[in-house]
């Protein structure tokens, strides 16, 4: 028996949804709404707005219309900005000016404080809320789009202070239709938390690769021939899309720097325990991490 539709999701079925930016995240969202790979159609019409003409042929099977014309957002019931954070910040005023009254404007950006701040300045006859689905792949671009990408993923929604609560309810409904689990967080708190679980892990993976590269430069490429599963798993995110990560780090600078200091403290504690041969301290640090990590992903 099918699960009953949540009340705040019903609007999506009759909606026209415009997705601005149809790479991995935007393309996956469009495919999930239009129906692909045995997923049922959930949105009445899905329009994708691309930046490059070369994207359009790839987009055609995943949405009802693909265009380069940003004015295509004008008839939409909801507009989703699926772009790097600094691009979202630039696009918000332009998109808002084209939208019809009462329509929803949200985004998929990985940082939220700067985006929500700009949203608070937009016209008050549209619904605005920040969004960040906690999912993705190393491979970027529309060719990697997957209609199941959002399945069971946490989808953070950051309310815009002083704006209608209807925006959060509608965005939560959209998240549920995609298969995700909505979580409501203040933008600043969101940025602190994702710095710890996403942004600083990326910088750490980059640092691990850079440190190994420095050793290989003096000791030869045998190091890379020996690299196996442990190195692969701990550095996986270092292979991610550079422009996106530069945007993330620059738009979440305070939280990233704060957590880098926290990481440095944890590394210093480990270093001291190893240098002193302090088995009790070393065991305590390792066991605490082991217990937490084993409990996170079962």
Instruction: Summarize the amount of helix as a percent range.
Output: 40-55%
Described by strand count, sense and barrel closure, the largest sheet is: 8 strands, mixed
The CATH homologous superfamily of the largest domain is called NAD(P)-binding Rossmann-like Domain
Beta strand count:
8
Unreliable residue runs: none
N-to-C CA distance: 27 Å
- Overall 3D shape: globular
- Strand arrangement across the biggest beta sheet: 3-2-1-4-5-6-7-8
CATH topology category name of the largest domain: Rossmann fold
List the secondary-structure elements in sequence, H or E. HEHEHEEHEHEEHEHHHHHH
The overall pLDDT average reads 92
Rg is 21 Å
Q: Which structural class is indicated by helix and strand composition?
A: alpha/beta
How many helices?
Answer: 12
Strand content: 5-15%
Task: Characterise the protein shown here.
The protein has 2 domains: 179 residues, NAD(P)-binding Rossmann-like Domain (Rossmann fold, 3-Layer(aba) Sandwich); 107 residues, 6-phosphogluconate dehydrogenase C-terminal like domain (6-phosphogluconate dehydrogenase C-terminal fold), CATH 1.10.3660.10. Helix content is 50%, strand content 13%. The protein contains 12 helices and 8 strands. It has an 8-stranded mixed β-sheet, sandwiched between helices. Helix 7 packs across helix 11. The mean pLDDT is 92.
